[in-house]
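Help!! Second protein's tokens look totally different from the first
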Amino acid sequence: QVLLVESGGGLVQAGGSLRLSCAASGNIFRINVMGWHRQAPGKQRELVATIFDSGNTGYSDSVKGRFTISRDNAKNTVYLDVNSLKPEDTAVYYCNARQFGVGAFDSWGQGTQVTVSS
């Protein structure tokens, strides 16, 4: 298991940008999948962006071209650069780490609030 701590959320105007960070308590270079999810009030949690141990990434259609996920293995940190923000991006953003196989785990952070004003 790893402990995940998100930071970087805040209040921003539409069109603005933020950098969300997810700091892990241990080495992340062997973690199979790390991702960012979000949950808006009254809605289900949705997957926003994923980065694999290979470095490959994936995005939901709603954020593709605006959000970028990256990982810095030396700092044990995963980032989500969110640009061209829209009011509908308002949500709590959660970091997730999944390890498969021997020693499998599925860890979540406590979330960071992103609020986009129109």
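Here's the second one for comparison:
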Amino acid sequence: QVQFVESGGGLVQPGGSLRLSCKASGTDFTIVAMGWYRQAPGNQREMVATITSAFITDYADSVKGRFTISRDIARNTVSLQMNSLKPEDTAVYYCNVPYKGRVRFASWGQGTQVTVSS
């Protein structure tokens, strides 16, 4: 059974930083891309950043230059370094496997809450 466990969220002031981590298990993640997604209240879940097995990255325009995605293939983990946080980054953050514009797995983890507020 595929499982994602996200951690690292919290309350931070605008301009601050957080580092999120996701541990994936239940299948072979070494050959697939991994991604971070977020969902703010009242909004649909959106892609934040993705990274392929060849470490090619992609970012939503809203986070380019501020967020950095990385992964440890041997440990099946993917991380998201978030700098210069803005109130509009407030959301629950999740990880999953991107696939043809959507995600491969219907089951999501519990997510980790990021709140940016003064």
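Reply: Different proteins will give different token patterns, so don't panic. The chain is about 0% helix and 50% strand.
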